[in-house]
Structure formats: C-alpha cells, structure tokens
Amino acid sequence: MSASLRAISDSAFAPAGLVRQPSIHELEARIKSHEWVNGQYRLMVLAAPDCVLDCRPGQFFHLLCPQTDRFQPYFRRPMSIYGYDRERGELSFLYKVAGTGTGALAELEAGDTLNIVGPIGQGFEIRPEWQRPLLLARGVGLATLAPLAKECASLGRPLTAICSARSPDLLMSTDLFRDCGAEVITVTDEEGNSGVESLTALIEGLIATRGINAFFTCGSARLMRMLQDIGTRHGIGGQVALEQHMACGIGMCQACVRPFRRADGAVNLRVCREGPVFDLQEAM
Amino acid sequence: MSASLRAISDSAFAPAGLVRQPSIHELEARIKSHEWVNGQYRLMVLAAPDCVLDCRPGQFFHLLCPQTDRFQPYFRRPMSIYGYDRERGELSFLYKVAGTGTGALAELEAGDTLNIVGPIGQGFEIRPEWQRPLLLARGVGLATLAPLAKECASLGRPLTAICSARSPDLLMSTDLFRDCGAEVITVTDEEGNSGVESLTALIEGLIATRGINAFFTCGSARLMRMLQDIGTRHGIGGQVALEQHMACGIGMCQACVRPFRRADGAVNLRVCREGPVFDLQEAM
Amino acid sequence: MADLSTRIGALTLKNPIMPASGTFSEELAEVFDLDCIGAHVTKTITREKRSGNPVPRVCEVNGAMLNSIGIPSKGADLFVKNTMPFYAAYEAPLVISISANTADDFARFAEEVSAPGVAAIEVNISCPNIEDHGKAFAIRPGSTEDVIRKIRSATHLPIWAKLSPNTGEVVEVAQAAEAAGADALVTANTMLAMAIDSRSGEIRLGNVMGGLSGPALKPITLRMTYQCAKAVAIPVIGCGGISSVDDVIEYLMAGARAVQVGTATFISPNTMPRLVAELEATLAARGLASLDALIGAARLADETITLAEYA
Amino acid sequence: MADLSTRIGALTLKNPIMPASGTFSEELAEVFDLDCIGAHVTKTITREKRSGNPVPRVCEVNGAMLNSIGIPSKGADLFVKNTMPFYAAYEAPLVISISANTADDFARFAEEVSAPGVAAIEVNISCPNIEDHGKAFAIRPGSTEDVIRKIRSATHLPIWAKLSPNTGEVVEVAQAAEAAGADALVTANTMLAMAIDSRSGEIRLGNVMGGLSGPALKPITLRMTYQCAKAVAIPVIGCGGISSVDDVIEYLMAGARAVQVGTATFISPNTMPRLVAELEATLAARGLASLDALIGAARLADETITLAEYA
Ligand SMILES: Cc1cc2nc3c(=O)[nH]c(=O)nc-3n(C[C@H](O)[C@H](O)[C@H](O)COP(=O)(O)OP(=O)(O)OC[C@H]3O[C@@H](n4cnc5c(N)ncnc54)[C@H](O)[C@@H]3O)c2cc1C
Ligand SMILES: Cc1cc2nc3c(=O)[nH]c(=O)nc-3n(C[C@H](O)[C@H](O)[C@H](O)COP(=O)(O)OP(=O)(O)OC[C@H]3O[C@@H](n4cnc5c(N)ncnc54)[C@H](O)[C@@H]3O)c2cc1C
Ligand SMILES: Cc1cc2nc3c(=O)[nH]c(=O)nc-3n(C[C@H](O)[C@H](O)[C@H](O)COP(=O)(O)O)c2cc1C
Ligand SMILES: Cc1cc2nc3c(=O)[nH]c(=O)nc-3n(C[C@H](O)[C@H](O)[C@H](O)COP(=O)(O)O)c2cc1C
Ligand code: FES
Ligand code: FES
C-alpha cells in the first residue's frame, strides 16, 4: 500500500440514537439444498425466518463456517445475498469454493444448520432517474448483482446485463437474468471478447442504442475502473459493490476500510458498514 | 503436593545404544467395531498390523483422539491394551468415556481410522516364582488386567481375580476372566462388600486357602495401599499398573513422573517409560 | 436470582461482563440491547484525528486473530458530538479509552474527556501498534508510573490502566500503576505477533506486526490477571480470549472482579448477553448468591499426585 | 534433489529440522532413525542433580499446551556417562542445552561440557520456570550480555542463545547476545501462562504457572524470529508452534536459517522426519534448488488494497 494512503483518516457514522429492536440477527438456519453449480461454485439455499428476509440486494450475511477435520476457519466469512424470498422463507448464497472458510462451508449438507449474522450493510439504491441500468458482473460478482436484476424487473426498468467470466462453463445465472427480462450479453476470456477495449466499445454502443444511464458492477477492479472512465466521459453515475477482508462484519473493528474520493479529500470507509455498495465514482 | 516430594530427583534410564529399527510405531488403524459395554464404557477393536501386536499385557498405546465439533482434544490419550490377537490382527481398548479426549474417541464409528502410537512402556512380568497370582481390579483397571489373565492362563498358572466396581452393572469382563479359567469374585459398593476391611479379610482368606503368592492390581490407589499392607505382612510381592497425566507418552518430556521408594530414597520415575507397571511395594 | 453485580472501586457494575476496547461500537446496538451488559468501553480515541494502519488490518491464525488496526480516530470533537450522546441514552456506565503519544498529552487529554456522563477513563498505555513496533508505556514500571501519575493529577475520574503482555515485568508494572494512583487494572491488551503467507511470502498484515487476540491469548492474560490480582489491592479486570462462561469463571477465580470480551464478539455478536445469562445460570446451578465465592478462588490441588480412583 | 542443508555459523546441518530442547530424548530413536534430522538438541541440563516441579506438570489448553516440567536433571556426570555416548553413535551434530543460576555458574558449566562430540552449546537463558516465576536472564539486555560474555570466555564452542518471549525488549536482548559473542539465536522458549479448572478452581499446573507451547505460540515466536533476523547478523533458529511444512516455511521466510520442533513431536512422534520429507517435496514443487530463496523472503504485499479479481 502506498504511503499516501496511510494519511487517510477513517470516518464512520454512528446510528441515530437508542436502538432497542435488533435489526441484525444471529441465528441458526437450516440448509434446504446445497448444490454444485459448476466445478467451482456452489449454491446454498437456507430456510430463513422473516426477520432476516427484510433485506436488500447488495446487502450481505456473515457466515460462521463450520470446523471440520480439514478446515478450521476462525473468522466469519462475508457472503452477498444471492436470493431472498419471503414467501418461500428462503435465503440463498452463490459462492466460489476458494480457501479455508468456503472449503469448510462446502462440506455442509442439506439438513445441517449454519449460523448466520445479517442482513448487513448498505444495499444498492436504484435512483428514480436511473431508468436504463446496465449491470456488469465478473465471476462471482454475478451473485451480488442477481437480486438487483430482480429488483429492476419488479420496478419495471428495462435492463441490460453483461456477464463476464474466464470461460463459458463458468458463466452462471444468465437464465436468472433473462427471467428478469434482461437483455443478456456474455463475454469470456476464452472467446477473447472480455477485455477492456472490446467491452468499452460494446458499452459505448449500448449507451448509444439503449440509452443506458446507470452502471452497477461487481467482481472486478479492472472493469470498475473502465466503468468509471466511461461514466466520466458520458456523465453516467452508478454503484459498485466492493470487498475487503473483514473481522466483525458489523462496523466495530475498522478492519474492512477502503479509501474513497470525497470532495474534501480521500476518506477511509468501512466496506461492512458504509458499503459494501458505494458510489461508482468515489471508489478508488 | 507436599514440600518433601519436591526434593525427589527424576531418574531415567537411557536405551542401550544406536537403535535403527523402530519398536514404537505411529500408524492409522481402522476401527473394526466400537460398542458400548455399559452406560459408561466402550470397547474399541482395531485392525492392526503385526508390528504393533508384538506387545505385552500392561503396555499401552497413545491415541490421537479426533477433533470433533464438540471436543477438541490436543494431547494424545494413553490407553491400556485390553486385548491383542496376532492371528486376527486385532488390538482392542476398553475405556471409560470421561472427558474431552474419550468423548471425542466415542464419536468414532466402525470404518473410521484412528492414529495410534505404540506399543509403549513396561508390561507386567510374571516371575517364575509367582505361581499363584491374585488379580485385583477396580473399575477400568479391569481393562489393564484382562490381557494379564490371558497370559496367566497360557502359562498355566491357576488364577483368582477379584473385580470391584461401584455397582453390579458396571462389572465388566468377568466372563473373559472366567474363560481364562480364573476363579472370579465380584464385589461392589452397592452390595457393601468392596471396602478395604472386607476385602482384606477376603484376601487373607484366599492366601490361606489358595496359597496366593503374587498380587497384580490396577485402578485404585486405596486398594493398592491395602495390597501393600497385606503384602508386607505376608511377604507377598507383586506389581501395580499406574496412571499419570502424559504429554509425549514415550519418555521425552518428564511430565508423567510419580515418586517411588528405592533403597537410596525416593525417586521420580516416568509412568510412560519405566512404567506403567511398577513393583507393588515401590509405588507411593 | 443470583446477584451478578461487582464493584470496580467506586463504580458498581450490574454484572461483570463488558466489551474490550476496539471490539465494540454503537453498531452493536443493532444486535442486542446494550443495557444488558455491565459497562460500555469505547474504542481508544486520540485527541487529534488520525488514520489507522494500512490494510490488511486483520488476519486469522490457528483459531485466533491478529490485528493491526492502529488507532484510527475521528478526534475528540466528533467523539463528544456523536458518540457520547449515543451512550448517554443507556444506563450502563460509559468508560472511555484514550491514548496519546506522551505522558503530558495523555494527562491533557484525560482532563478534556473528564466530562459528565463518563464513568471512568481507561488509559491504553499498552497498544502495541501506536509506538515503534510494540514499545509502549506499559512495558516498563518507570514509564507506567510517570504516565499514570500525570493522568491522576489531571482527572478526578477513576483511571483504569490497561496493561500489556509484551513485558517481562508484569508485576512491577502493575504495582507502578497502583502506586501512581490507578483505580483498576485491565489485563490485558494484545500480544505482539505476526503471520506470513507461506505460499507467496506476503506478510499478512499491512503493518507487518500486530496484536494477537482470541482464544490463543487466554493462557497468557489469565496468568497476568492472576499475577496482578496477587500483587495489587486495586481491582483487576480480566481480558483476553474470553468466549465461554468457563473462561469468565477462570478469570474470576484468578482474581478478576470483572472481565472484558473482545474478539469473541466478532465471532458471535451475541457473546456478551449470552455470557451474562450463562453466568447467572452457573451461579444458580452452583447455589452461589453472588460472585464473591468465585473471585480469587483459584488454588493448588490438595493432592496433585494421586489421581482419582475409578469405579 | 533439492539441497536442504543450512549453515549455522561454522556448523553445517544437512537439513534445517531439529528438535527443541526438552521435547526430545534418546527414546525417540525407537520411533525413527535419528540421523534423518539436522541436529540433536538435548533437554536442558544443570551441573548438579535437581528435581523438577510438582505434578501436574502439563495440561492442554485450546489446541496448545502448558508445561511446568522445570529442569529435572540427573546432573552432568550421568549425562556425560550415559547420554553423550548414545548420541556419539549418530552423525547429526549434538547440541547440548545448559542452564545455571548465575552467570558465573553458567560459564563454569559451559566450560565443563565443552567436550569432544559436542557441536554447540545452547544456553537456556529463558526458561520461565527456573527463576522466580518467569524472570530469566533473557528478559533484559544487560543480564543477557553479562551471561553470554562470561560463557563466551569459557568455551570455544558455538554458543546458541535461547531467547524468551517474556520480554518487552526482544531486539535489544538479541543485539546484546550478539554483541557478547553468541553464534546464533534460538527464538524462542515458551511464554509464561496459566490455566484454571473452572469447575473445581484447581490450578491446572502443580507449579501454578508454566510455559505455553504449540500452535498458539507460533504468531508470537514467528514475530520474534522476524524481529531478531532483522536486528542481528548471526543466524537465527526459529522455534514455536511448528507442526506443518507451511510453519517451517513461514519461519524461514521470517529469516530463520533452521527451525526447532517441540510440542508437535508429542502429538505425532514422526513430525520431524515428515517435515524433512515435506520440505524437500515443497522445494521440488516450487523448483527451488536450496533454502536460499526462502530464507528471509517475507515481504509486504505490493498492493494490499486491491483484492484479486474473480473469474
Ligand atoms: C461483502 C462481501 C460479499 C461477498 N460475496 C460473495 C459471494 O456472494 N460469493 C462469493 O463467492 N464470494 C463473496 N465474497 C468473497 C468471500 O467472502 C471470500 O471468497 C471468502 O471470504 C474467502 O474465504 P476462504 O476462507 O474460502 O478463502 P481464504 O483465502 O482462505 O480466506 C482467507 C481470509 O481472507 C478473507 N478473504 C479472502 N478473499 C476475500 C475477498 N474476496 N473478500 C473479502 N475477504 C476475503 C477471508 O474472509 C479470510 O478471512 C464476498 C466478500 C465480501 C466482502
Ligand atoms: C498408562 C495408562 C493406561 C490407561 N488405560 C486406560 C484404559 O484402559 N481405559 C480407560 O478408560 N482409561 C485408561 N487410562 C486413563 C485414560 O487415559 C484417561 O481416562 C483419559 O486420558 C481421560 O481423558 P479425557 O480427555 O476423556 O478426560 P479429561 O478429564 O478431559 O482429561 C484431561 C486431561 O487429563 C488427563 N487425564 C485425565 N484422567 C487421567 C488419568 N486417569 N490418567 C492419566 N491422564 C489422565 C488426560 O489425558 C487429559 O490430558 C489410562 C491411563 C494411563 C496413564
Ligand atoms: C480489532 C481490535 C481492535 C482493538 N483495538 C483496541 C483499542 O483501540 N484499544 C485497546 O486498548 N485495545 C484494543 N484491542 C485489544 C482488546 O481490547 C483486547 O485487549 C484484546 O483483543 C484481548 O481480548 P480478546 O482476546 O477478548 O479479544 C483491540 C483488539 C482487536 C481485536
Ligand atoms: C515439555 C517441555 C519441556 C521443555 N523443556 C525445555 C528445556 O528444558 N529447555 C529449553 O530451553 N526449552 C524447553 N522447552 C521449550 C521448547 O524447547 C520450545 O522452545 C517451546 O516448546 C516452543 O516450541 P514448540 O511450540 O514447538 O513446542 C520445553 C517445552 C516443553 C513443551
Ligand atoms: S469488518 Fe469490522 S468494521 Fe467492517
Ligand atoms: S509422558 Fe512424556 S515422559 Fe512420560
């Protein structure tokens, strides 16, 4: 990390006043199903009570991955809400089996319980003026953007979604996006159409033809910077969902800060609290 | 612990010379069966290779109890050999489910594997002059004395075994002793015939009628002291299997010492190395 | 119902469970009612606004954690404006943790925060990050005595001195704090530690070294608690690796009159209310009317040589 | 085949894996061929016969252990008569760990054990049990310099100074040992700790306090290893909580030229030969010809702020 970033002060906003009614819940949820989506990703569906389903696209849960013979994670692991359904009492996560925590998670089976804390953080906001959104997801960023697509559909906003992945078999949830009425464009490294150059051309084309006036993205720092550039040139705003290593997940420890551009200079914000969704142009 | 014991020096004898052939083995053994014997004790039978079955009654193994969701033992746990059978390739342990380690052990099932280290320690020695042995076992001391009964049988020594327990349902292995041709006498706290007074009378009677000329005991400090008294009065020698908290189990750490009477004063000996079987009269 | 109250000098807490500085904030009110615990202890603040350390600021190691958060501070002004009014709405006493770079700055800042609504000042003279790689006031008795004495003359509020495990002179430091006028000791802060990714060679904290907390720390800080409780007459507050009611009881038995819960709250945000309930249940199960029978009850086993007899 | 050899001053070890003092003895020869490891390090001995501490001498805590064995010693005479000839039959260099109550006694004893067949003397100036509850030479730079200097003038053999984590002055102590003529540092001994049975109130070690070792100690001693390797020019030997090849590599990356394995041998007596084999396999897998590329390779991540991109 560069020396200049060390000079950034951490900022935090306190909740308004006395809170006697919990809004973040810690509970044991039963696993309804837990399937491999492809060779790297698993979809976990939990039976969840109403209190935690009062959530928004972009928020996340903090999962207590189990202790197993092979994996002994200590911290919880943050995971975006992939789906929530009050009628069916379901909460779901789509995750990549990466290391210790997700490795342990992957060993759970339907019928087991999982301790979850949430919902946490600031979700996406679809401003009234953002009538023609573009979603740009890379890899597991799809998991985070999926519920946003549903929300756009329910708000009646026509939607274009670009899904990027290493190879076609790692493209997920394109049907989910199509079911939301989205126009879906897939790009992959393997096909050679996922680079910044071709994507920029593609998106500038979409701005011209579809009248795109908002960007939502998740899953790639490179693509975020590309959207910042395009957004600046075309005067288009938007939001990005970011990640950072976390300890507490609910704003107490200041572990998860990232720097953001503000009028009065850079400021450190907590991804778990002021985020994980941030203004696209403020992200650094 | 009394101040005087602090003055006792630890003694140790080193193995004779260069040892290139391992005699203590660390290996994964498969569990053939694992059954409850009564409400507190379980019998575990392992499939074991010849190298570890070259063992003696009174020796023990050091077991790596598994990490489970409920129990996370760190040290190994010492466990006497309850049975060993080269023909069937079997090694068995009879143990009381007591705390963290044995609690974790109890969660294993047939088919699972268990990491064991052994055989370790000095086993019982049936001296030629000890023609008419008496075995006195309390509780889980039965586990330790069981293979000794078999050895007595194979040596053709007529045997008397007194088995003591809290209640009749906790008496174990009496059939095993009978199968070895032993005369079996059971005493229990519940029946009120397990106290030192009535046992002393019983044993002195047996000395008179059966010509008992050696004592082997395990499982109770109180009964050990009683046998020391009777032995002193009647000039009868014998051996006792002792316990102590252990770390390494193979003689390196000096954790498992106990004091013993020697001609030149008290000396600390390692239960895992100089024991677990000791001269009855030397034990303190 | 058992009485869980405990006295820390002039202050009576309704129960001995409180948060450790830096592992607690207003946000926890969204998880449970903050009035169910014995006190509120804020993250250490400094007088001036200051940034924390570079990320990664945390990592996990063998069932415990390292942190090099540093002391990011929004400064005293914002603290007084935003944080103090928040806690004023609760009955639980408010303990403010402060830090500074010199003894004089410490004293000046202590004076400034001695405002109505503050029940005690915890002086973090042990944070291993702020000074050069772990050197802090609480490492030596001399510097401890100096800083506490200056703070003592600057405030009428109770002073809780938060000690460090990064010293070879625990007892001397504790006695120096007492002699200089501290009203209580908190044992202890984190232990300086480090982790490296064995694949990449990357040091796992942006600040190179950081503080070890969580279960792995407990045997060390429990030992400090025992040493300090034996060595001083002022109350000792245990802290380090507490996550179960058994941990709480171990600290009480070691001589602590109250305990602070840190990292465990990250693993389960409801840890503190759970511990209050379980402590009450344990007292009831043991037939104890108050904490008195537990505090300082640790003792050597009568006869350590003879193991229990089997039956 | 990768070259695992490493140099500790004038001494070349065929691999960097050796036992930690007090966790190794002749008996381990019954488990594996002792010539497969880099060196043999004996349990600390004292000149005079002395008894150890009361039992219980060990207990387990959260995936680690405490010990208060003390230094039971059969005395120098029996050591020379029984133990030295045993190790003489092996090729691996023999390192004798010694302790004494004063600097002069240390020097005298070092002179006596400077016999043929001894490759180096490890001076245990850090054992937390022998002096009053954890105070040892290695807590202060002054006492460290004094004792090492006296030993230096009493023996021509390499001196390995075994440091303690129970100090706030690790770097100063390390530099003092170097200045006084130590040939290598061992980082480190156990950390003073304690445990209480929360049910009975019984203190779980007969000696009240004891040393923490095993996985929980690793982040602390790894940090010391890093600090010392940066601060001195003599080789540093890492020790504390090593049980996997990743642990070994972390220590090498922190700057250690060799490592000592302690408690892990109690959990799996074959730990050391396994680590030798796995280290060799790891070097091969990474295409490294020797340990050079690993030793001291720890570094800050280039860009710690941007997390890897998903795909
Ligand atoms: C708000 C948020 C939402 C997320 N949503 C999803 C999701 O829906 N699906 C998904 O697959 N992943 C998601 N991630 C990333 C996911 O949390 C990490 O992949 C996971 O923590 C890796 O843990 P591990 O133990 O398997 O990997 P390891 O590499 O072993 O983790 C080691 C440590 O690093 C942390 N870490 C590693 N990668 C990340 C990361 N990218 N972000 C934050 N911390 C990390 C872990 O939490 C852990 O503390 C999200 C992250 C954040 C912050
Ligand atoms: C040589 C030897 C042979 C033994 N043989 C048998 C046997 O055949 N069957 C059987 O049921 N038990 C036997 N024991 C006792 C058995 O080792 C203990 O019951 C077991 O270690 C308890 O572990 P735990 O974690 O379940 O109990 P905990 O009480 O949770 O153990 C805590 C710690 O204390 C130690 N410990 C507790 N009790 C004892 C004890 N009595 N002896 C030594 N260490 C103890 C444990 O090893 C552990 O480190 C033997 C002990 C020894 C030394
Ligand atoms: C993320 C984090 C931040 C901390 N910040 C502070 C702090 O600002 N001031 C302080 O005195 N202690 C701080 N500590 C130390 C804790 O208050 C506590 O002393 C330590 O974590 C040991 O307790 P635990 O094992 O229960 O976490 C912090 C600890 C953690 C984990
Ligand atoms: C049972 C036991 C006995 C020990 N005895 C000694 C000793 O005699 N001399 C010494 O310098 N260190 C002694 N140590 C400390 C170890 O050598 C080592 O420094 C420490 O255990 C940390 O390493 P580990 O975590 O790999 O065990 C002992 C450690 C244990 C566990
Ligand atoms: S993870 Fe603790 S503040 Fe965000
Ligand atoms: S348990 Fe280590 S010497 Fe006996």
Give an account of the 3D structure.
The complex is a heterotetramer, with 2 copies of chain A (284 residues) and 2 copies of chain C (311 residues). With 284 residues, chain A is α/β, with parallel strands linked by helices. Chain A folds into 2 domains: 118 residues, Translation factors (Elongation Factor Tu (Ef-tu), domain 3); 109 residues, 3-Layer(aba) Sandwich (Rossmann fold). Helix content of chain A is 22%, strand content 31%. Chain A has 7 helices and 15 strands. In chain A, a hairpin with a 4-residue loop joins strand 5 and strand 6. Chain A is globular. Chain C is α/β, with parallel strands linked by helices and 311 residues long. Chain C has one domain: Aldolase class I (TIM Barrel, Alpha-Beta Barrel). In chain C, the strands form 3 sheets. In chain C, strands 3-14-13-10-9-8-7-4 form an 8-stranded parallel sheet. Chain C has a 4-stranded antiparallel sheet with strand order 5-6-12-11, with no helix packed on it. In chain C, helix 2 links the parallel strand 7 and strand 8. Classes of the chains: A alpha/beta (284), C alpha/beta (311). Chains in contact: A-B, A-C, A-D, B-C, B-D, C-D. Chains B and C meet through loops of B and loops of C. The structure holds flavin-adenine dinucleotide (2 copies), flavin mononucleotide (2 copies) and FE2/S2 (inorganic) cluster (2 copies). One FE2/S2 (inorganic) cluster (FES) binds next to loops of chain B. One flavin mononucleotide binds next to loops of chain D.
The fourth-level CATH homologous superfamily of the largest domain in chain A is Translation factors
- State the CATH class of the largest domain in chain A: Mainly Beta
Strand content of chain C: 15-25%
Mean of pLDDT of chain A = 91
Binned strand content of chain A: 25-35%
Number of strands of chain C: 14
Radius of gyration of chain C: 19 Å
Quickly count the helices of chain A: 7
Total number of helical segments of chain C? 8
Largest sheet of chain A: 7 strands, antiparallel
N-to-C order of helices and strands of chain C: EEEEEEHEHEHEHEEEHEHEHH
User: What name does CATH use for the topology of the largest domain in chain A?
Assistant: Elongation Factor Tu (Ef-tu), domain 3
**Helical residues, percent of chain C:** 25-40%
Query: Which architecture name of the largest domain in chain A does CATH use?
Result: Beta Barrel
Q: Would you identify the regions of chain A where 5 or more consecutive residues have pLDDT less than 50?
A: 1-9, 11-17
Provide the domain count of chain A: 2
Assign the CATH topology of chain C. Answer: TIM Barrel
In whole angstroms, the N-to-C terminal distance of chain C is 36 Å
If interface size is counted as residues with C-beta under 8 Å from the partner's C-beta, which chains form the largest one?
A: C-D, 56 and 56 residues
